[in-house]
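Closing statement on the flavin-adenine dinucleotide sub-project.
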Amino acid sequence: MSGVLVVMEQRSGAWNRMSFEALAAGQQLAAKLGAECSAAVVGSDPGALATELSSKKLKKAFAVQHALLGIYTSDGYVAALEQLIKEENPDFVLLPHTYQVRDYAPALATRFQQVLISDVIGIRTEDDRADSPIFVRQLLQGKLNADYRHIPPGPCFVSIQAGTFRADAVEDGTAATETFSPRLSPDQIRNKPGEPFRESSHTVDLTAAPVIVSVGRGIGEEGNLPIVEELAKALGAELAASRPICDNGWLPMERQVGSSGQTVSPKLYVAIGISGAIQHLVGMKGSKAVLAINKDENAPIFEIADYGVAGDLFEIVPELTKAIQTAKS
Amino acid sequence: MKIVVAIKQVPERDAPIHIAADGRWIEEGDLNYTINEPDAYALEEALQLKEKQGDAEVVVVSAGPERVQSTLREALAKGADRAIHIECDDLSTRDTLGVAQVLAETIKAESPDLILTGLQSDDLGLGQTGVVLAELLGIPHATIILQVEFSGAGLKVKRELEDGWFQHVEMPLPALLTIQSGGNKLRYATLMGIKKAKTKELKTVLAAEASAAATISMERVYLPEKQKKTEMLTGSPQEIAAKIVEKLKFEVRVI
Ligand SMILES: Cc1cc2nc3c(=O)[nH]c(=O)nc-3n(C[C@H](O)[C@H](O)[C@H](O)COP(=O)(O)OP(=O)(O)OC[C@H]3O[C@@H](n4cnc5c(N)ncnc54)[C@H](O)[C@@H]3O)c2cc1C
């Protein structure tokens, strides 16, 4: 086939939205390469989803179908996709950078003696090397960017970070649907996954809060939390946190914002001592306004902040609390 | 029961970022190194399993130049039984597959029941070494794990999913797990532990030459471009506070 193959993600017949971002990436990459893009969806009965893809601008929409693929397992997905990729021989395999993809795509790439270029935030091509795109990734938790290239022969495996491409940029068209039936046997599948569950009965709903004050590891220790609690009180804001604060048990997990916590979009999000790792940003970058206070002027949080203070939170935050109290009284 | 924990040494979080002259990495002379944070959680999980299990041995393994020995010593001080340093000065020229091959060779000889790694590294963040290692060793794996229990002849683990969801997974041994932060509280090394660590075995083995050329290459590193125009507020803390209040009143309108 050559060209680009995008592996879409579904659970119980519902798409993972990020799949369409990866699909947009795949279509755009294929256009730059002058090649064609196809897509695949894996499951025990993915026919209806593949049919949905037939209205997209694709060469083919594959339904990778087997009774053993009803519930996700790394073993099942790796074996099935390995067979599809061997048969179709794409130059590039694009996937959304989801937890599921993190779980199986590195093993899938290994089957081809390849390394997944994971969590990509941009794809560029240079005119003189149009066939060798540059994949941009973050290093050091977002402090640096890096350009990666794949060294042929392929296939080249790439996973695309949330929000990098727009799902609504997927081009419509037509695609031929095709069922692909991999050979799988029950003894190949070693893990027994249970049903997904939620833990806390979300008593804190951060999603409704108009103003959020969020605290990160810069706060240093639990005993310093009152500094931000007072600011939150003065602003009438909900208190939220980055993951390390909840990992340490300083605030309950239900106050965590990010990919493994809540996704919020308040009128104002105040990020205090938070570096701005992508897993945090995906949970708050929809905020109408972001104010970041961080002593490191190069902290990635400033890349998405509207207002920034490069300074020590222990000096700034108490003054800010006082000033707000005065302004409100 | 033998548990191997694969540990990476990474630059400290507050490390100064100066891009090296060749544009391919940062100045290493400026850096202090520490254990990769998710790997610290992997070590903690191993030590707690050992405490529950009684007769378990915890072996820590790290590939890299000589400096990684300090991180291995710290792991010994926290309670690991033995350490293996895979000496490899060209680690950064090997891709994930190359690094996993180096680890696989040494770990295979140990025939562990369980291998733990952190879910990703704080420096490169590729998030793949554990999964690739499992694939090379032909053993099952599960990723982003918060809790581990032995159950019958195998394991029952709690896996984090997106948006606050979780899932239990049962799997046979031997197996590999990549550990997420927050499942346990990290311990500190005690003075006693530090003293004891000096008498524990730290073996050095030489990494084999890379068996294949890398399939991906990092060509250049650079500071990210800003996506938004950030208005930086400056002055004394009082002046900054006053400026923020203005913004919140008249632009954001939340006061
Ligand atoms: C699968 C996965 C899921 C994850 N899910 C989430 C998630 O849902 N939410 C989340 O937040 N993270 C999540 N993470 C973790 C994420 O990658 C980061 O590690 C985390 O967000 C970092 O938190 P932080 O910014 O508080 O800490 P750090 O990155 O340590 O940043 C602390 C910041 O404080 C600043 N600082 C220090 N002292 C001061 C001071 N005195 N004054 C001002 N500033 C100061 C520093 O300059 C630094 O920028 C996840 C990671 C993985 C791998």
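Chain A has eight helices and 18 strands. With this model delivered, the sub-project is considered complete and its resources will be redirected to Aim 3.
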